Amino acid sequence: MRFVLAIVAFVLAAVMIVLGIAQRTILLEPAFTSLGSTVTGDTTYTVIDPSALAASSGSQTINVRGDGAVFLAYGRSDDVAAWIGTDAYSTVGFSEETGELTSTVTEAVTPDDEVAPDAGAADAVPADEAAAIVNPAGSDLWLDEYTGTHSLTTTLTLPDDISVIVASDGIEPAPASIRLSWASDNSTPWAGPLLAGGALLLLAGLVLYLLALLHLRRSRRPRRNIPRGPRMPRLPRAPRPKSIKASQITTSRRGITRRVAILPMVLVSGLALSGCSADLWPDFSTADTATATPTPTPQSTDSVEAAAELPPPAVTVSQLETIMGEISLLSADADATLNTETISTRFTGPALEQRLANYKIRAVDPAVAPLVALPGAPITFTLPQQTNSWPRVVMTVIQDENDPSIPTLAVMLKQESPRSNYQVDYLFALEQSAHVPEVAPAVVGAPAIAPDNKLLLLPPDQLAAAYADILIQGAASPSYGLFESDGDNFRIQVADLNAAKVAALPSTASIEFAAAAGSDEAVALATNDSGSIVAVSMTETETVKPVQEGATVGPAGDALAAKALSGITTTTKGFQNTYRDQLLFYVPTSGSSDKIVLLGFAQGLITSAELP
Protein backbone atom coordinates (compact mmCIF):
# COMPACT_ATOMS: atom_id res chain seq x y z
CA MET A 1 0.00 0.00 0.00
CA ARG A 2 2.86 2.33 0.76
CA PHE A 3 4.27 1.74 -2.71
CA VAL A 4 0.87 2.61 -4.22
CA LEU A 5 0.64 5.84 -2.21
CA ALA A 6 4.23 6.74 -3.16
CA ILE A 7 3.48 6.19 -6.85
CA VAL A 8 0.31 8.31 -6.63
CA ALA A 9 2.27 11.09 -4.87
CA PHE A 10 5.00 10.97 -7.53
CA VAL A 11 2.43 11.15 -10.35
CA LEU A 12 0.54 14.07 -8.77
CA ALA A 13 3.81 15.86 -8.03
CA ALA A 14 4.92 15.46 -11.63
CA VAL A 15 1.60 16.77 -12.94
CA MET A 16 1.64 19.80 -10.62
CA ILE A 17 5.27 20.65 -11.34
CA VAL A 18 4.76 20.33 -15.10
CA LEU A 19 1.69 22.58 -14.94
CA GLY A 20 3.56 25.14 -12.80
CA ILE A 21 6.53 25.20 -15.17
CA ALA A 22 4.21 25.42 -18.20
CA GLN A 23 2.51 28.51 -16.77
CA ARG A 24 5.89 30.27 -16.62
CA THR A 25 7.04 29.07 -20.07
CA ILE A 26 4.84 27.91 -22.94
CA LEU A 27 1.59 29.20 -21.40
CA LEU A 28 3.03 32.56 -20.28
CA GLU A 29 1.31 35.62 -21.75
CA PRO A 30 3.51 38.37 -23.30
CA ALA A 31 4.79 41.00 -20.87
CA PHE A 32 3.70 43.92 -23.07
CA THR A 33 1.65 44.93 -26.11
CA SER A 34 3.31 47.06 -28.74
CA LEU A 35 2.08 49.09 -31.74
CA GLY A 36 4.21 51.14 -34.10
CA SER A 37 3.61 53.85 -36.66
CA THR A 38 5.66 55.72 -39.22
CA VAL A 39 4.38 59.28 -39.43
CA THR A 40 3.52 60.41 -42.92
CA GLY A 41 4.38 63.87 -44.20
CA ASP A 42 7.10 66.26 -43.15
CA THR A 43 5.19 68.28 -40.56
CA THR A 44 7.11 69.89 -37.72
CA TYR A 45 4.67 68.68 -35.07
CA THR A 46 3.09 65.31 -34.37
CA VAL A 47 0.23 64.78 -31.93
CA ILE A 48 -0.36 61.37 -30.35
CA ASP A 49 -4.12 61.25 -29.89
CA PRO A 50 -5.71 59.94 -26.66
CA SER A 51 -7.28 57.12 -28.70
CA ALA A 52 -3.79 55.84 -29.55
CA LEU A 53 -2.62 56.17 -25.95
CA ALA A 54 -5.66 54.20 -24.78
CA ALA A 55 -5.36 51.47 -27.42
CA SER A 56 -4.46 49.10 -24.59
CA SER A 57 -4.86 49.35 -20.84
CA GLY A 58 -2.03 50.19 -18.49
CA SER A 59 0.90 52.60 -18.55
CA GLN A 60 2.07 53.83 -21.93
CA THR A 61 5.71 53.46 -22.90
CA ILE A 62 6.42 55.85 -25.77
CA ASN A 63 9.48 55.40 -27.95
CA VAL A 64 10.28 58.12 -30.51
CA ARG A 65 13.12 57.88 -33.01
CA GLY A 66 14.39 60.54 -35.37
CA ASP A 67 17.48 61.85 -37.12
CA GLY A 68 18.31 64.63 -34.67
CA ALA A 69 16.84 66.29 -31.61
CA VAL A 70 13.73 64.66 -30.15
CA PHE A 71 11.21 66.55 -28.02
CA LEU A 72 8.17 65.07 -26.32
CA ALA A 73 5.65 66.69 -23.99
CA TYR A 74 2.12 66.02 -22.80
CA GLY A 75 -0.70 68.31 -21.80
CA ARG A 76 -4.44 68.72 -22.01
CA SER A 77 -5.69 67.96 -25.50
CA ASP A 78 -7.26 71.42 -25.81
CA ASP A 79 -3.99 73.08 -24.79
CA VAL A 80 -1.98 71.03 -27.28
CA ALA A 81 -4.40 71.97 -30.06
CA ALA A 82 -4.30 75.62 -29.00
CA TRP A 83 -0.50 75.70 -29.03
CA ILE A 84 -0.34 74.22 -32.55
CA GLY A 85 -3.03 76.62 -33.69
CA THR A 86 -3.19 76.88 -37.47
CA ASP A 87 0.14 75.16 -38.20
CA ALA A 88 0.28 71.87 -40.08
CA TYR A 89 0.65 68.76 -37.93
CA SER A 90 0.40 64.98 -38.05
CA THR A 91 -1.86 62.93 -35.83
CA VAL A 92 -1.17 59.40 -34.63
CA GLY A 93 -4.48 57.73 -33.81
CA PHE A 94 -5.87 54.22 -33.39
CA SER A 95 -8.16 52.27 -35.72
CA GLU A 96 -10.49 49.88 -33.91
CA GLU A 97 -11.20 48.07 -37.17
CA THR A 98 -7.59 47.13 -37.92
CA GLY A 99 -6.22 47.32 -34.40
CA GLU A 100 -3.28 49.36 -35.69
CA LEU A 101 -2.03 52.90 -35.27
CA THR A 102 -2.96 55.40 -37.98
CA SER A 103 -1.22 58.51 -39.26
CA THR A 104 -3.00 61.51 -40.76
CA VAL A 105 -1.86 65.00 -41.75
CA THR A 106 -3.73 68.24 -41.06
CA GLU A 107 -2.64 71.00 -43.41
CA ALA A 108 -1.85 74.50 -42.21
CA VAL A 109 -4.68 77.00 -42.17
CA THR A 110 -3.88 80.19 -44.06
CA PRO A 111 -5.65 83.53 -43.65
CA ASP A 112 -7.36 82.93 -46.99
CA ASP A 113 -9.09 79.79 -45.73
CA GLU A 114 -12.75 80.31 -45.01
CA VAL A 115 -13.05 78.09 -41.96
CA ALA A 116 -10.29 77.22 -39.49
CA PRO A 117 -10.34 73.74 -37.92
CA ASP A 118 -10.07 75.22 -34.47
CA ALA A 119 -11.35 78.77 -34.35
CA GLY A 120 -10.54 79.20 -30.67
CA ALA A 121 -6.93 78.15 -31.21
CA ALA A 122 -6.59 80.37 -34.28
CA ASP A 123 -7.86 83.38 -32.38
CA ALA A 124 -5.64 82.58 -29.42
CA VAL A 125 -2.38 82.67 -31.37
CA PRO A 126 -1.65 85.90 -33.25
CA ALA A 127 0.01 85.33 -36.61
CA ASP A 128 3.16 87.25 -35.73
CA GLU A 129 3.59 85.40 -32.44
CA ALA A 130 2.96 81.99 -33.99
CA ALA A 131 5.64 82.75 -36.55
CA ALA A 132 8.10 83.90 -33.90
CA ILE A 133 7.67 80.96 -31.49
CA VAL A 134 8.00 77.60 -33.23
CA ASN A 135 9.82 75.45 -30.67
CA PRO A 136 7.37 73.89 -28.19
CA ALA A 137 10.12 73.24 -25.62
CA GLY A 138 9.70 75.22 -22.42
CA SER A 139 6.02 76.05 -22.84
CA ASP A 140 4.09 76.54 -19.63
CA LEU A 141 1.19 74.56 -21.11
CA TRP A 142 2.95 71.22 -20.78
CA LEU A 143 2.43 69.11 -17.72
CA ASP A 144 5.87 67.60 -18.34
CA GLU A 145 8.38 67.45 -21.18
CA TYR A 146 11.36 65.32 -22.24
CA THR A 147 14.23 65.78 -24.67
CA GLY A 148 16.73 63.46 -26.28
CA THR A 149 18.91 62.90 -29.34
CA HIS A 150 17.94 60.39 -32.06
CA SER A 151 15.85 58.38 -29.60
CA LEU A 152 13.68 59.02 -26.58
CA THR A 153 11.76 56.55 -24.42
CA THR A 154 9.51 57.36 -21.48
CA THR A 155 6.76 55.59 -19.57
CA LEU A 156 3.64 57.56 -18.63
CA THR A 157 0.17 56.95 -17.24
CA LEU A 158 -2.10 59.42 -18.98
CA PRO A 159 -5.90 59.82 -18.74
CA ASP A 160 -8.15 60.09 -21.77
CA ASP A 161 -8.12 63.88 -22.11
CA ILE A 162 -4.34 64.19 -22.44
CA SER A 163 -2.43 64.33 -25.73
CA VAL A 164 1.27 64.05 -26.47
CA ILE A 165 3.11 66.45 -28.78
CA VAL A 166 6.28 65.30 -30.55
CA ALA A 167 8.68 67.63 -32.35
CA SER A 168 12.31 68.20 -33.16
CA ASP A 169 13.11 71.91 -32.80
CA GLY A 170 10.03 73.37 -34.46
CA ILE A 171 11.93 73.90 -37.70
CA GLU A 172 13.02 70.42 -38.79
CA PRO A 173 10.37 67.75 -39.38
CA ALA A 174 9.19 65.87 -36.31
CA PRO A 175 10.62 62.37 -35.69
CA ALA A 176 8.82 59.87 -37.91
CA SER A 177 9.11 56.61 -35.93
CA ILE A 178 6.71 56.28 -32.99
CA ARG A 179 6.09 53.09 -31.04
CA LEU A 180 3.64 52.68 -28.16
CA SER A 181 3.88 49.83 -25.69
CA TRP A 182 1.68 48.84 -22.78
CA ALA A 183 2.77 46.60 -19.94
CA SER A 184 0.35 43.71 -19.47
CA ASP A 185 -0.30 41.61 -16.39
CA ASN A 186 1.36 38.28 -17.16
CA SER A 187 1.59 37.13 -13.58
CA THR A 188 0.80 33.47 -12.91
CA PRO A 189 -0.65 33.42 -9.39
CA TRP A 190 -1.14 29.63 -9.34
CA ALA A 191 2.31 28.70 -10.61
CA GLY A 192 3.79 29.14 -7.14
CA PRO A 193 1.20 26.95 -5.37
CA LEU A 194 1.51 24.29 -8.07
CA LEU A 195 5.30 24.18 -7.82
CA ALA A 196 5.29 24.27 -4.03
CA GLY A 197 2.54 21.65 -3.83
CA GLY A 198 4.34 19.47 -6.32
CA ALA A 199 7.53 19.76 -4.29
CA LEU A 200 5.70 18.78 -1.11
CA LEU A 201 4.07 15.81 -2.82
CA LEU A 202 7.45 14.80 -4.19
CA LEU A 203 8.88 14.82 -0.68
CA ALA A 204 5.87 12.93 0.63
CA GLY A 205 6.22 10.34 -2.12
CA LEU A 206 9.91 9.95 -1.37
CA VAL A 207 9.18 9.43 2.32
CA LEU A 208 6.45 6.88 1.52
CA TYR A 209 8.80 5.08 -0.85
CA LEU A 210 11.56 4.88 1.76
CA LEU A 211 9.09 3.67 4.39
CA ALA A 212 7.80 1.01 1.98
CA LEU A 213 11.35 -0.18 1.29
CA LEU A 214 12.11 -0.31 5.01
CA HIS A 215 8.93 -2.25 5.67
CA LEU A 216 9.73 -4.71 2.87
CA ARG A 217 13.25 -5.22 4.18
CA ARG A 218 12.03 -5.93 7.67
CA SER A 219 9.45 -8.41 6.41
CA ARG A 220 12.22 -10.58 4.81
CA ARG A 221 14.19 -11.11 8.07
CA PRO A 222 14.10 -14.60 9.76
CA ARG A 223 11.44 -15.06 12.36
CA ARG A 224 11.93 -16.67 15.77
CA ASN A 225 10.11 -19.89 17.09
CA ILE A 226 9.18 -21.09 13.67
CA PRO A 227 8.35 -24.83 13.71
CA ARG A 228 10.71 -26.98 11.67
CA GLY A 229 9.38 -28.97 8.82
CA PRO A 230 10.90 -32.04 7.22
CA ARG A 231 14.57 -31.69 6.26
CA MET A 232 15.01 -31.01 2.60
CA PRO A 233 17.72 -32.80 0.66
CA ARG A 234 20.97 -30.86 0.26
CA LEU A 235 21.29 -29.21 -3.12
CA PRO A 236 24.56 -29.17 -5.00
CA ARG A 237 26.76 -26.17 -4.26
CA ALA A 238 26.74 -23.45 -6.90
CA PRO A 239 30.07 -22.52 -8.44
CA ARG A 240 31.81 -19.79 -6.53
CA PRO A 241 32.19 -16.51 -8.56
CA LYS A 242 35.55 -15.01 -9.00
CA SER A 243 36.50 -12.33 -6.53
CA ILE A 244 36.45 -8.74 -7.73
CA LYS A 245 39.15 -6.38 -6.67
CA ALA A 246 38.28 -3.12 -5.00
CA SER A 247 40.01 -1.17 -7.76
CA GLN A 248 37.56 -2.64 -10.29
CA ILE A 249 34.53 -1.17 -8.51
CA THR A 250 33.64 2.17 -10.23
CA THR A 251 30.52 3.14 -8.29
CA SER A 252 29.49 2.04 -4.86
CA ARG A 253 25.96 1.27 -3.89
CA ARG A 254 26.21 3.99 -1.28
CA GLY A 255 27.05 6.53 -3.99
CA ILE A 256 24.14 5.37 -6.09
CA THR A 257 21.82 5.63 -3.13
CA ARG A 258 23.21 9.08 -2.28
CA ARG A 259 22.61 10.35 -5.83
CA VAL A 260 19.08 9.00 -5.83
CA ALA A 261 18.45 10.90 -2.59
CA ILE A 262 20.20 14.12 -3.68
CA LEU A 263 18.36 14.42 -7.01
CA PRO A 264 14.89 15.04 -5.50
CA MET A 265 16.40 17.44 -2.95
CA VAL A 266 18.06 19.55 -5.68
CA LEU A 267 14.83 19.60 -7.66
CA VAL A 268 12.78 20.57 -4.63
CA SER A 269 15.23 23.33 -3.66
CA GLY A 270 15.19 24.79 -7.18
CA LEU A 271 11.42 24.78 -7.26
CA ALA A 272 11.24 26.43 -3.85
CA LEU A 273 13.61 29.19 -4.90
CA SER A 274 11.78 29.74 -8.18
CA GLY A 275 8.54 30.22 -6.28
CA CYS A 276 9.79 33.26 -4.33
CA SER A 277 8.61 35.75 -6.99
CA ALA A 278 5.44 37.65 -6.11
CA ASP A 279 4.12 37.04 -9.66
CA LEU A 280 3.84 33.32 -8.88
CA TRP A 281 1.45 33.67 -5.96
CA PRO A 282 -2.16 34.86 -5.69
CA ASP A 283 -2.72 38.22 -4.00
CA PHE A 284 -5.43 38.00 -1.35
CA SER A 285 -4.87 41.48 0.05
CA THR A 286 -7.86 43.82 -0.07
CA ALA A 287 -5.83 47.03 -0.03
CA ASP A 288 -5.56 49.08 -3.19
CA THR A 289 -2.09 48.40 -4.51
CA ALA A 290 -2.38 50.46 -7.67
CA THR A 291 0.64 52.63 -8.31
CA ALA A 292 0.30 56.39 -8.18
CA THR A 293 -0.33 57.99 -11.56
CA PRO A 294 -0.20 61.57 -12.75
CA THR A 295 -3.59 63.28 -12.57
CA PRO A 296 -3.17 66.40 -14.64
CA THR A 297 -6.88 66.74 -15.29
CA PRO A 298 -8.87 68.39 -12.49
CA GLN A 299 -11.78 66.79 -10.68
CA SER A 300 -14.23 68.50 -8.40
CA THR A 301 -14.27 67.42 -4.78
CA ASP A 302 -18.05 67.64 -4.76
CA SER A 303 -19.02 65.83 -7.93
CA VAL A 304 -17.15 64.46 -10.88
CA GLU A 305 -20.11 65.15 -13.13
CA ALA A 306 -20.34 68.74 -11.93
CA ALA A 307 -16.61 69.23 -12.46
CA ALA A 308 -16.90 67.92 -16.01
CA GLU A 309 -19.29 70.76 -16.79
CA LEU A 310 -16.84 73.42 -15.58
CA PRO A 311 -13.90 74.75 -17.58
CA PRO A 312 -10.62 73.25 -16.37
CA PRO A 313 -8.21 75.24 -14.18
CA ALA A 314 -5.54 77.16 -16.07
CA VAL A 315 -2.72 75.18 -14.43
CA THR A 316 -2.20 72.31 -12.04
CA VAL A 317 -0.27 72.69 -8.80
CA SER A 318 2.71 70.78 -10.21
CA GLN A 319 2.68 73.02 -13.29
CA LEU A 320 2.66 76.12 -11.12
CA GLU A 321 5.55 74.84 -9.01
CA THR A 322 7.62 74.38 -12.17
CA ILE A 323 6.61 77.80 -13.51
CA MET A 324 7.42 79.62 -10.26
CA GLY A 325 10.76 77.82 -9.99
CA GLU A 326 11.75 79.00 -13.47
CA ILE A 327 10.56 82.57 -12.80
CA SER A 328 12.44 82.68 -9.49
CA LEU A 329 15.73 81.63 -11.09
CA LEU A 330 15.30 84.04 -13.98
CA SER A 331 14.37 87.01 -11.79
CA ALA A 332 17.29 86.35 -9.43
CA ASP A 333 19.70 86.42 -12.36
CA ALA A 334 18.10 89.52 -13.87
CA ASP A 335 18.09 91.35 -10.51
CA ALA A 336 21.79 90.64 -10.06
CA THR A 337 22.82 91.65 -13.58
CA LEU A 338 20.18 94.40 -14.11
CA ASN A 339 19.18 92.65 -17.33
CA THR A 340 16.06 94.38 -18.61
CA GLU A 341 15.60 91.99 -21.55
CA THR A 342 15.67 88.91 -19.36
CA ILE A 343 13.23 90.25 -16.77
CA SER A 344 10.84 91.33 -19.53
CA THR A 345 10.34 87.72 -20.58
CA ARG A 346 8.71 86.81 -17.26
CA PHE A 347 7.41 90.13 -15.87
CA THR A 348 4.77 92.46 -17.25
CA GLY A 349 2.46 95.26 -16.18
CA PRO A 350 3.10 97.15 -12.92
CA ALA A 351 5.41 94.40 -11.60
CA LEU A 352 7.71 94.87 -14.60
CA GLU A 353 7.46 98.67 -14.40
CA GLN A 354 8.70 98.71 -10.81
CA ARG A 355 11.59 96.38 -11.55
CA LEU A 356 12.75 98.28 -14.62
CA ALA A 357 12.76 101.51 -12.61
CA ASN A 358 14.77 99.81 -9.86
CA TYR A 359 17.31 98.55 -12.43
CA LYS A 360 17.69 102.05 -13.83
CA ILE A 361 18.21 103.52 -10.37
CA ARG A 362 20.74 100.88 -9.32
CA ALA A 363 22.66 101.28 -12.57
CA VAL A 364 23.30 104.92 -11.60
CA ASP A 365 23.58 104.41 -7.84
CA PRO A 366 24.53 100.87 -6.74
CA ALA A 367 23.91 101.86 -3.13
CA VAL A 368 20.15 101.67 -3.74
CA ALA A 369 18.72 98.38 -2.50
CA PRO A 370 17.16 95.94 -4.98
CA LEU A 371 13.51 95.01 -4.80
CA VAL A 372 12.49 92.00 -2.73
CA ALA A 373 13.54 88.74 -4.39
CA LEU A 374 10.83 86.45 -5.71
CA PRO A 375 11.25 82.94 -4.26
CA GLY A 376 9.85 79.99 -6.17
CA ALA A 377 8.74 77.98 -3.13
CA PRO A 378 7.09 76.98 -0.91
CA ILE A 379 3.72 77.60 -2.55
CA THR A 380 1.03 77.68 0.12
CA PHE A 381 -1.93 78.95 -1.92
CA THR A 382 -2.97 78.32 -5.52
CA LEU A 383 -6.01 79.76 -7.28
CA PRO A 384 -6.07 79.24 -11.05
CA GLN A 385 -8.72 80.67 -13.31
CA GLN A 386 -11.33 78.34 -14.77
CA THR A 387 -10.93 78.81 -18.50
CA ASN A 388 -10.41 77.22 -21.89
CA SER A 389 -9.37 80.47 -23.55
CA TRP A 390 -6.79 83.22 -23.22
CA PRO A 391 -5.58 85.33 -21.49
CA ARG A 392 -5.34 83.18 -18.39
CA VAL A 393 -4.77 84.27 -14.80
CA VAL A 394 -3.37 82.42 -11.78
CA MET A 395 -2.92 83.67 -8.22
CA THR A 396 -0.45 82.09 -5.81
CA VAL A 397 1.02 82.82 -2.39
CA ILE A 398 4.60 81.99 -1.42
CA GLN A 399 5.32 81.79 2.29
CA ASP A 400 8.29 80.37 4.17
CA GLU A 401 6.99 79.72 7.67
CA ASN A 402 10.47 78.77 8.88
CA ASP A 403 11.93 82.17 7.99
CA PRO A 404 9.75 85.06 9.19
CA SER A 405 12.27 87.59 7.82
CA ILE A 406 11.12 86.76 4.28
CA PRO A 407 7.83 88.55 3.51
CA THR A 408 4.83 86.53 2.41
CA LEU A 409 4.30 87.32 -1.26
CA ALA A 410 1.18 87.11 -3.39
CA VAL A 411 1.67 86.83 -7.14
CA MET A 412 -0.76 87.37 -10.01
CA LEU A 413 0.40 85.57 -13.16
CA LYS A 414 -0.99 86.14 -16.62
CA GLN A 415 -0.60 84.15 -19.84
CA GLU A 416 -1.61 86.18 -22.87
CA SER A 417 -1.71 83.38 -25.47
CA PRO A 418 -0.90 79.66 -25.84
CA ARG A 419 2.60 80.25 -27.17
CA SER A 420 3.56 82.81 -24.56
CA ASN A 421 4.59 81.86 -21.03
CA TYR A 422 3.14 83.08 -17.77
CA GLN A 423 4.39 86.46 -16.62
CA VAL A 424 4.24 88.14 -13.23
CA ASP A 425 1.62 90.86 -13.61
CA TYR A 426 1.24 91.87 -9.96
CA LEU A 427 3.55 91.17 -7.02
CA PHE A 428 2.46 92.10 -3.48
CA ALA A 429 3.71 91.73 0.05
CA LEU A 430 0.75 90.44 2.07
CA GLU A 431 -0.37 92.24 5.19
CA GLN A 432 0.53 90.33 8.35
CA SER A 433 -3.08 90.40 9.48
CA ALA A 434 -4.44 89.57 6.05
CA HIS A 435 -6.90 86.70 5.95
CA VAL A 436 -7.44 85.30 2.49
CA PRO A 437 -11.09 84.19 2.18
CA GLU A 438 -12.00 80.62 1.34
CA VAL A 439 -11.70 79.77 -2.32
CA ALA A 440 -12.21 76.70 -4.50
CA PRO A 441 -9.49 74.03 -4.45
CA ALA A 442 -6.74 74.27 -7.03
CA VAL A 443 -8.09 71.26 -8.98
CA VAL A 444 -11.33 73.19 -9.59
CA GLY A 445 -10.15 76.80 -9.92
CA ALA A 446 -12.21 79.97 -9.82
CA PRO A 447 -14.01 81.93 -12.53
CA ALA A 448 -12.69 85.35 -13.45
CA ILE A 449 -14.84 88.35 -12.54
CA ALA A 450 -15.46 90.98 -15.21
CA PRO A 451 -13.94 94.40 -14.39
CA ASP A 452 -17.37 96.07 -14.55
CA ASN A 453 -19.18 93.41 -12.48
CA LYS A 454 -21.82 95.15 -10.36
CA LEU A 455 -22.64 92.15 -8.19
CA LEU A 456 -19.76 93.07 -5.87
CA LEU A 457 -19.75 95.77 -3.23
CA LEU A 458 -17.70 97.81 -5.69
CA PRO A 459 -16.92 96.90 -9.34
CA PRO A 460 -13.24 95.93 -9.77
CA ASP A 461 -12.59 98.75 -12.27
CA GLN A 462 -13.76 101.35 -9.72
CA LEU A 463 -11.77 99.99 -6.81
CA ALA A 464 -8.47 101.80 -7.45
CA ALA A 465 -10.12 105.20 -7.99
CA ALA A 466 -12.15 104.88 -4.78
CA TYR A 467 -9.10 103.91 -2.72
CA ALA A 468 -7.03 106.72 -4.27
CA ASP A 469 -9.70 109.20 -3.21
CA ILE A 470 -9.46 107.90 0.37
CA LEU A 471 -5.68 108.44 0.39
CA ILE A 472 -6.18 112.07 -0.59
CA GLN A 473 -9.35 113.04 1.29
CA GLY A 474 -9.31 110.55 4.16
CA ALA A 475 -12.58 110.30 6.06
CA ALA A 476 -14.10 113.00 3.84
CA SER A 477 -14.07 110.63 0.85
CA PRO A 478 -17.51 109.22 -0.14
CA SER A 479 -15.88 105.77 -0.37
CA TYR A 480 -14.34 105.86 3.09
CA GLY A 481 -17.04 103.69 4.68
CA LEU A 482 -16.66 100.93 2.10
CA PHE A 483 -13.08 100.09 3.07
CA GLU A 484 -11.81 98.54 6.30
CA SER A 485 -9.36 100.91 7.94
CA ASP A 486 -8.18 98.61 10.75
CA GLY A 487 -5.08 96.73 9.68
CA ASP A 488 -4.59 98.89 6.57
CA ASN A 489 -0.87 99.58 6.93
CA PHE A 490 -0.58 101.10 3.47
CA ARG A 491 -2.69 104.11 4.47
CA ILE A 492 -0.53 104.58 7.54
CA GLN A 493 2.65 104.27 5.48
CA VAL A 494 1.51 106.81 2.90
CA ALA A 495 0.33 109.27 5.54
CA ASP A 496 3.61 109.03 7.49
CA LEU A 497 5.77 109.42 4.37
CA ASN A 498 3.80 112.41 3.15
CA ALA A 499 3.99 114.09 6.57
CA ALA A 500 7.77 113.52 6.65
CA LYS A 501 8.16 115.06 3.19
CA VAL A 502 6.16 118.11 4.18
CA ALA A 503 8.24 118.54 7.34
CA ALA A 504 11.51 118.28 5.41
CA LEU A 505 10.45 120.77 2.75
CA PRO A 506 12.11 124.21 2.94
CA SER A 507 9.98 127.32 3.23
CA THR A 508 10.91 128.29 -0.32
CA ALA A 509 9.09 125.31 -1.82
CA SER A 510 5.65 123.70 -1.82
CA ILE A 511 4.55 120.11 -2.32
CA GLU A 512 1.30 118.69 -3.67
CA PHE A 513 0.10 115.08 -3.51
CA ALA A 514 -2.28 113.33 -5.90
CA ALA A 515 -3.46 109.78 -6.51
CA ALA A 516 -5.46 108.14 -9.30
CA ALA A 517 -6.33 104.74 -10.66
CA GLY A 518 -3.63 103.11 -12.76
CA SER A 519 -4.00 102.25 -16.42
CA ASP A 520 -3.59 98.50 -15.80
CA GLU A 521 -6.63 96.27 -16.05
CA ALA A 522 -8.07 94.99 -12.79
CA VAL A 523 -7.71 91.22 -12.27
CA ALA A 524 -10.43 89.54 -10.20
CA LEU A 525 -11.04 85.91 -9.19
CA ALA A 526 -14.17 84.70 -7.40
CA THR A 527 -14.23 83.41 -3.82
CA ASN A 528 -16.58 80.82 -2.33
CA ASP A 529 -18.78 83.45 -0.67
CA SER A 530 -19.56 85.16 -4.02
CA GLY A 531 -16.96 87.82 -3.29
CA SER A 532 -13.73 88.38 -5.19
CA ILE A 533 -9.98 88.79 -4.80
CA VAL A 534 -9.05 91.83 -6.90
CA ALA A 535 -5.65 93.14 -7.99
CA VAL A 536 -5.46 96.76 -9.17
CA SER A 537 -2.82 99.39 -9.76
CA MET A 538 -2.75 102.99 -8.61
CA THR A 539 -0.56 105.98 -9.42
CA GLU A 540 0.64 108.47 -6.81
CA THR A 541 2.37 111.73 -7.73
CA GLU A 542 4.12 114.37 -5.67
CA THR A 543 4.89 117.71 -7.24
CA VAL A 544 7.50 120.03 -5.67
CA LYS A 545 7.69 123.67 -6.83
CA PRO A 546 9.66 126.71 -5.65
CA VAL A 547 7.44 129.45 -4.21
CA GLN A 548 10.02 132.25 -4.45
CA GLU A 549 11.56 133.60 -7.61
CA GLY A 550 15.08 132.28 -8.11
CA ALA A 551 14.69 129.56 -5.48
CA THR A 552 15.77 126.02 -6.32
CA VAL A 553 14.35 122.71 -5.21
CA GLY A 554 15.65 119.16 -5.25
CA PRO A 555 13.85 115.84 -5.59
CA ALA A 556 11.64 115.12 -2.63
CA GLY A 557 11.02 111.79 -0.97
CA ASP A 558 13.59 109.17 -1.93
CA ALA A 559 16.21 111.68 -3.12
CA LEU A 560 18.78 109.10 -4.22
CA ALA A 561 16.34 107.22 -6.41
CA ALA A 562 14.78 110.42 -7.77
CA LYS A 563 18.18 111.87 -8.69
CA ALA A 564 19.15 108.62 -10.39
CA LEU A 565 15.99 108.63 -12.49
CA SER A 566 15.96 112.33 -13.36
CA GLY A 567 19.68 112.97 -13.55
CA ILE A 568 19.13 116.42 -11.97
CA THR A 569 20.09 117.51 -8.48
CA THR A 570 18.37 120.92 -8.24
CA THR A 571 16.13 122.99 -10.48
CA THR A 572 14.26 126.27 -10.46
CA LYS A 573 11.26 124.72 -12.24
CA GLY A 574 10.32 121.96 -9.84
CA PHE A 575 10.11 118.17 -9.78
CA GLN A 576 7.40 115.55 -10.14
CA ASN A 577 7.86 112.04 -8.75
CA THR A 578 5.52 109.24 -9.83
CA TYR A 579 4.94 106.09 -7.77
CA ARG A 580 3.22 102.94 -9.00
CA ASP A 581 1.21 101.09 -6.35
CA GLN A 582 0.03 97.50 -6.61
CA LEU A 583 -2.95 96.73 -4.38
CA LEU A 584 -4.68 93.46 -3.56
CA PHE A 585 -8.20 93.59 -2.10
CA TYR A 586 -10.91 91.27 -0.96
CA VAL A 587 -14.25 92.65 -2.16
CA PRO A 588 -17.43 91.13 -0.64
CA THR A 589 -20.60 90.59 -2.59
CA SER A 590 -23.10 93.39 -3.10
CA GLY A 591 -25.38 93.95 -0.13
CA SER A 592 -22.93 92.40 2.34
CA SER A 593 -22.29 94.08 5.68
CA ASP A 594 -18.58 93.32 5.35
CA LYS A 595 -16.11 95.89 4.11
CA ILE A 596 -13.45 95.83 1.41
CA VAL A 597 -10.18 94.65 2.97
CA LEU A 598 -6.65 95.41 1.77
CA LEU A 599 -4.76 92.10 1.63
CA GLY A 600 -1.41 93.26 0.29
CA PHE A 601 0.45 96.04 -1.49
CA ALA A 602 3.69 97.09 -3.16
CA GLN A 603 4.93 100.60 -3.92
CA GLY A 604 7.82 101.83 -6.00
CA LEU A 605 9.12 105.01 -7.61
CA ILE A 606 8.94 104.64 -11.40
CA THR A 607 9.70 108.15 -12.76
CA SER A 608 11.20 111.43 -11.59
CA ALA A 609 11.34 114.36 -13.96
CA GLU A 610 11.80 118.12 -14.03
CA LEU A 611 8.65 120.14 -14.58
CA PRO A 612 8.41 121.84 -17.98
UniProtKB/TrEMBL annotation:
Location of the DUF8094 domain = 313-606
Q: Is Methyltransferase among this UniProt entry's keywords?
A: no
Keywords for the protein's UniProt record, in alphabetical order: Membrane, Transmembrane, Transmembrane helix
> Which InterPro entries does the record associate with it?
DUF8094 (IPR058407)
From the record, give the transmembrane residue ranges.
Answer: 190-214, 260-281
Q: Region (Disordered): which ranges?
A: 223-249
Q: What is this protein called?
A: DUF8094 domain-containing protein
Q: What is the lineage of its organism?
A: Bacteria, Bacillati, Actinomycetota, Actinomycetes, Micrococcales
